[in-house]
Every structure is written in structure tokens, then in C-alpha cells.
């Protein structure tokens, strides 16, 4: 059973009514980081509305391919050979996630890997929102040296026993999430919840072939057919100004992970009459990113050029009322 830590904030009497009613703290180990990589193990700690542990679950998964970086996760082909396929554990996994907010460290990665696996077996994961513990630690202003799980664990005095083992990583994260959730509730902090949109399209063109490496055993896979985006028909009216509406023709760039699949978000921007740019220049009207402090080339250039930056949620609101271009 997970223990309260000395650094944990006592549970507030008045719990925020808008907070979720349950959480699924998740960790998955994978064959790699690409879109065609597969889950090889998964763990879920189910927590109630106030972060108390209800139960936990762990499974190996046969990825039907090379296991990837064995030196990291320790799962060899021999170990995984007799494990169930994802389709065999999909129902049980879904039952653990159903009706709960998915909590993970760098949650967009875990969510996307899970969504792809469900899409492969023509199902949808029953997850509608996720919470990233990196984002929550930023909201709380925790004095962490970096955003690694080990740093978050150390801050709350949680001992990590087997790094990169899904069950232990999920346990560590659950222990660190509990005091984080209580601190957020005590201070009335808005939880950084993001929408999860299950995949409805999956085109897996991967063809198995012999390979000695963990990352080259399969060919490319994709979410949807690639296509050339039409040119924006409107002139660039300049930069976005805070508090005002977007205007057709504005050049919008995206950086980092988004809760909505990137191509889908770009499609929505294009349909609204915006120019989707692949890079940042002095002509860029707006940069959309959920992590403005990430230090990516786009965020660095945006700061250099004074390009306005908004997060995905704010951009979604702005897309609802885009001003027509001048005639």
C-alpha cells in the first residue's frame, strides 16, 4: 500500500468539485519511440477522486516484433514470446481506464502509444482526458532540477526500485501524484487536463523483415494517407494580438506535443482560413505550443522574433471565431 509522505499536504476538507472522480496512473514500456513502435508492457494504478489507491494491474504484451532497447527495459524476445497480444488484454486494459483521467509522466507519449494499439485492433480506448505530471509539477511550481520521473520521485521521498519497469514506474508515479493532487486541491490549482481523442483511422504499412537492431525491424507506418496541403488564399494580415481574434491569412506554426493529433489540428486551422507554417520567421503570426519553455528551435526563434505564443486550449477557443480576411 502506498504511504503518505512527510512532504504531502493534508487532504483539504473542501475538495474542488470540478476535480475528476477517478484516475488511472499509467506507464507503458515500448519497443521504441516512433509511431510504428509497440507496447511490450503496461501497468495501471487506479486511484479514487482524492488519490487513494484502489488497486493495480500489470501485464507483458507480445509486440510481434523485435523488442527494441532491451538494455533499457530488460524485456527480451524470449520473455515476450509467450506473452498475450495486445488484442488479448485490450478489454482488461480498457476496464482499468474506463471513466478515469489517464495520468502519466509525459502523458502524451503514453496516450498516443495506447491509442495506436487500440486502433490496430479496431477499438477505442475509453479515455477522454489525460493529465501529465510534468505539467502538474509546473502548475505547482515544484523546485525540480529537471522533468525526469526520478526527480519528481526524489522531491516527494519516493524510492524507485526498478526504473523502466512499467509496474514500478507506475507505482512511483502514483506515490508522487498523490501529494501533488492534494497540494493542487489545497491551493485551488486548476488541473492541467487535456482532451484525448481516440484514433478512428490507422494505416499500418509495416512489413516485418529480419533485422539485428531494435529500431529497424519494421517499415514505416502512418496514421492517415499523406497529402499536400492547399495554399492559403488570403494575405498575411500580420501578428496575432492578445485579446483579439485570429484573422484569415495569419501564419500559424505548431511546436511540441498536442492533445489533438497534429495533422487534425493543422486541418482545422487550414479550414478556418489560416496559413499553416512549418517553421518560424519574422512573418509568423502565432506559435501554438503546450510547453513554451521547452527550448525547441521554434520556441527559441519565436522569443527572438517576439512572435506571440498560445497553448493548444487557447488556440482551440480562437479557432471558434476567426475574423474573415479583408476583401
Biggest pleated sheet: 6 strands, mixed
Low-pLDDT sequence parts: 1-9, 206-227
The counted number of beta strands is: 10
Order of the strands making up the biggest sheet: 3-2-1-4-5-6
Question: How would you describe this protein?
Answer:
This protein is of the alpha/beta class and 327 residues long. Helices cover 30% and strands 16% of the residues. It is built from 10 helices and 10 strands. The chain has helices at residues 70-73, 77-81, 86-97, 107-120, 133-140, 149-155, 166-187, 262-271, 297-305, 312-319, and strands at residues 22-30, 39-48, 53-60, 101-104, 129-132, 193-195, 251-255, 275-277, 286-289, 309-310. A 6-stranded mixed β-sheet has the order 3-2-1-4-5-6, sandwiched between helices. Strands 8-7-9-10 form a 4-stranded parallel β-sheet, sandwiched between helices. Helix 5 packs parallel to helix 7 and helix 6 (149-155) crosses helix 7. It is globular and about 65 Å long. It starts with 21 loop residues before the first strand and ends in an 8-residue tail after the last helix.
Question: Could you provide a short overview of the structure?
Answer:
It is built from ten helices and ten strands.
Name the features.
alpha/beta, 327 residues, 10 strands, 6-stranded mixed beta sheet, 30% helix, 16% strand, disordered N terminus
Question: How are the elements arranged and paired?
Answer:
Layout: E1 22-30, E2 39-48, E3 53-60, H1 70-73, H2 77-81, H3 86-97, E4 101-104, H4 107-120, E5 129-132, H5 133-140, H6 149-155, H7 166-187, E6 193-195, E7 251-255, H8 262-271, E8 275-277, E9 286-289, H9 297-305, E10 309-310, H10 312-319
Parallel strand pairs: 1-4, 4-5, 7-8, 7-9, 9-10
Antiparallel strand pairs: 1-2, 2-3, 5-6
Helix pairs in contact: 5-7, 6-7
Amino acid at each position: 500500500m502506498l504511504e503518505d509522505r512527510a512532504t504531502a499536504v493534508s487532504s483539504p476538507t473542501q475538495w474542488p468539485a470540478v476535480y475528476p472522480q477517478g484516475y488511472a496512473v499509467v506507464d507503458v514500456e515500448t519497443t521504441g519511440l516512433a509511431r510504428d513502435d509497440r507496447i511490450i508492457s503496461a501497468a495501471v494504478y487506479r486511484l479514487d477522486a482524492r488519490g487513494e489507491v484502489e488497486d493495480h494491474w500489470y501485464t507483458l504484451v507480445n509486440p510481434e516484433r523485435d523488442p527494441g532497447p532491451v538494455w533499457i527495459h530488460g524485456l527480451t524476445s524470449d520473455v515476450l514470446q509467450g506473452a498475450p497480444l495486445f488484442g488479448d488484454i485490450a478489454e482488461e486494459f480498457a476496464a482499468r481506464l474506463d471513466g478515469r483521467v489517464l495520468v502519466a509522466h509525459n502523458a502524451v507519449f503514453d496516450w498516443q502509444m495506447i491509442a495506436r494499439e487500440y486502433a490496430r485492433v479496431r477499438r477505442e480506448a475509453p479515455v477522454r482526458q489525460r493529465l501529465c505530471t510534468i505539467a502538474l509539477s509546473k502548475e505547482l511550481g515544484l523546485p525540480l532540477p529537471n522533468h525526469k520521473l526520478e526527480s519528481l520521485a526524489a522531491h516527494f521521498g519516493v524510492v524507485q526500485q526498478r526504473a523502466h519497469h512499467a509496474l514500478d514506474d507506475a507505482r512511483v508515479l502514483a506515490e508522487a501524484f498523490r501529494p501533488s493532487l492534494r497540494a493542487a486541491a489545497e491551493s485551488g490549482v486548476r488541473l492541467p487536463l487535456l482532451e484525448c481523442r481516440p484514433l478512428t483511422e490507422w494505416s499500418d504499412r509495416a512489413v516485418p523483415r529480419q533485422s539485428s537492431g531494435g529500431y529497424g525491424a519494421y517499415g514505416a507506418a502512418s496514421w492517415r494517407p499523406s497529402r499536400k496541403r492547399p495554399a492559403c488564399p488570403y494575405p498575411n494580415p500580420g501578428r496575432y494580438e492578445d485579446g483579439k481574434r485570429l484573422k484569415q491569412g495569419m501564419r500559424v506554426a505548431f511546436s511540441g506535443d498536442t492533445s489533438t493529433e497534429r495533422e487534425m489540428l493543422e486541418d482545422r486551422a487550414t479550414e478556418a482560413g489560416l496559413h499553416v507554417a512549418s517553421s518560424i520567421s519574422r512573418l509568423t503570426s502565432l506559435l501554438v505550443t503546450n510547453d513554451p519553455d521547452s527550448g525547441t528551435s521554434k520556441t527559441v526563434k519565436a522569443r527572438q522574433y517576439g512572435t506571440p505564443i498560445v497553448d493548444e486550449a487557447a488556440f482551440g477557443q480562437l479557432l471558434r471565431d476567426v475574423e474573415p480576411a479583408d476583401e
